[in-house]
Amino acid sequence: MFYETEKNDHGLARPPFKSIAVPRPIAWISTLDAEGRANLAPYSQFTNLTFDPPYILFSANRDYDGARKDTTNNIELTGEFVHNMVTYDLLDKMNITAAAFEPGVDEFEAAGLTKEPSVMVKPPRVAESPIHLECKYVTTICLPGTSAVGNADIIIGKVVGVHIKDEYILPNGKIDIEKIKPLARMGYSDYTFIEKVFEYVPSDAAHDEGDRALGLEGATGAFGKK
Known about the structure:
Blueprint: E1 24-25, E2 27-32, E3 38-43, E4 46-51, E5 54-61, H1 70-78, E6 80-84, H2 91-97, H3 107-111, E7 115-116, E8 125-126, E9 131-143, E10 152-164, H4 177-180, E11 183-185, E12 191-193, H5 209-217
Antiparallel strand pairs: 1-11, 2-3, 2-6, 4-5, 5-10, 6-9, 7-8, 9-10, 11-12
């Protein structure tokens, strides 16, 4: 099949686009508003950008009336946010925080989650989450939509601090992803989680195995020290 996105003439019972770029990790973003009230919300259009230094981005579509998300407003106002990794065990609580609460409602409390202080930023972390990225706001890229909700604010942040619970670090220094079971979004209302990991050594066909390994590992600062 083929369809033009502007015509949306795919002829399927369900829109297929969000089932193509999968699985997508979930950015569970905690922020503070101008009055210091906590906000927590998930965003499934999320990725890391680079590693030296580390940057991440997530995209927050606007509401059906064109209003920006509280997360976006809070980040631009305070310049800080935290990404909290969502696991399979946290699915139900994450789902509660996805609800469209009124501004000022504390989603930590609504979902029965525990706040944990951050080190380098003010927004709290989700104590139940195994990994947190403390971030400083860098910029917003605004993408125009064909509808109000199609307008998207892409938030880019620089990671200034990383928390990993010790029980999820293996003796070889790797993170125990199979134990964590990170949650990911598919299309529709579908989710998945990681339960199998395998290693595949990069090709040395171009005789650059050392550099490729450093890049795949995300060895911050390694390239400048050569």
